[in-house]
Amino acid sequence: MSITWFSDESKDIYVTLTPMHITINKAGLQFFDSAYQVMLGYDKVKNVIIIKPLSKDDVTRGDIPEHAMYNISLSSTYARITNKAFITKVIEIFNLNLDEKGSKYKARWRVNSGVLEVELKGVE
């Protein structure tokens, strides 16, 4: 007999954007569990936000400008980045309509580049 155990825990990574926060769900938390800070970026052609975790060594090495690194708060069920300036820029560039409740977007971890890409083409 071959048994497959059911697990209802979501394996999909979702990122919720509000006018103040970027929140990564539990499925995406594993890629940030040792992050000391993050870098934030976007790709207008691919319609994605890019979040790169930085280790303490990355941060203290000195080759990344201090103004390009942002704090990340970790809990047991989510990770949160608070950066109103970045989100305001993203809203402007991608013409997003975010409210206080937030909009949820699918994301995927890019193993080769070590970044999380948040797909802005469709709201979940």
What does this molecule look like?
With 124 residues, this protein is an alpha+beta fold. The chain has one domain. 17% of the residues lie in helices and 37% in strands. The chain has 3 helices and 8 strands. The protein has helices spanning 26-29, 56-61, 84-94, and strands spanning 13-17, 21-24, 37-43, 48-54, 73-74, 79-82, 103-110, 115-123. Strand 5 (73-74) and strand 6 (79-82) form a beta hairpin. The longest helix is centred in the C-terminal third of the chain and has 11 residues, at 84-94. The model has no long low-confidence stretch (mean pLDDT 93).
Fraction of residues in helices? 10-25%
Rg estimate, integer Å = 15 Å
Count of extended strands = 8
Percent of sequence in beta strands: 35-45%
Order of helices and strands: EEHEEHEEHEE
Distance between the termini: 38 Å
* Main beta-sheet annotation: 8 strands, antiparallel
Strand order of the largest sheet: 3-4-8-7-1-2-6-5
Query: Runs with pLDDT <50, length 5+?
Result: none
State the assembly state of the protein chains.
Answer: single chain
Which term fits the overall shape? globular
Mean pLDDT: 93
How many helical stretches?
3
Structural classification: alpha+beta
Tally of distinct domains: 1
Question: Top keywords for this entry?
Answer:
8-stranded antiparallel β-sheet; alpha+beta; single chain; 124 residues; globular
Which helices and strands occur, and which strands form pairs?
Blueprint: E1 13-17, E2 21-24, H1 26-29, E3 37-43, E4 48-54, H2 56-61, E5 73-74, E6 79-82, H3 84-94, E7 103-110, E8 115-123
Antiparallel strand pairs: 1-2, 1-7, 2-6, 3-4, 4-8, 5-6, 7-8
